[in-house]
UniProtKB/TrEMBL annotation:
Keyword NAD: no
Domain named HTH cro/C1-type: residues: 5-59
InterPro entries per record: Cro/C1-type_HTH, Lambda_DNA-bd_dom_sf
UniProt entry keywords in alphabetical sequence: DNA-binding
Annotated source species: Sandaracinobacteroides saxicola
PANTHER family registered for this protein in UniProt: DNA-BIDING PHAGE PROTEIN, TRACRIPTIONAL REGULATORY PROTEIN-RELATED-RELATED
Keyword DNA-binding: yes
Protein name per UniProt: Helix-turn-helix transcriptional regulator
GO molecular function: DNA binding
């Protein structure tokens, strides 16, 4: 699964630690999601979408 997480984060001038703090997860998890090494759980994907105020499909998409 690919994602636009890094782009959305950069648009807000947040680093990985900032985003991780807002989501209550580790910075390493953010890095793994951004690089495609880890697909977030559905609840986490919903939290990410809510934080960026957009649908999940606008962040995550099939390869």
């Amino acid at each position: 699964m690919k994602n636009r997480l890094k782009v959305l984060r950069a648009e807000r001038d947040w680093n990985q630690a900032d985003l991780a703090d807002r989501l209550g997860i580790s910075r390493q998890s953010i890095n793994a999601i951004e690089t495609g090494r880890y697909d977030p759980s559905l609840p986490l994907a919903f939290r990410i979408a809510a934080l960026f105020d957009c649908p999940i499909e606008a962040i995550f998409f099939a390869d």
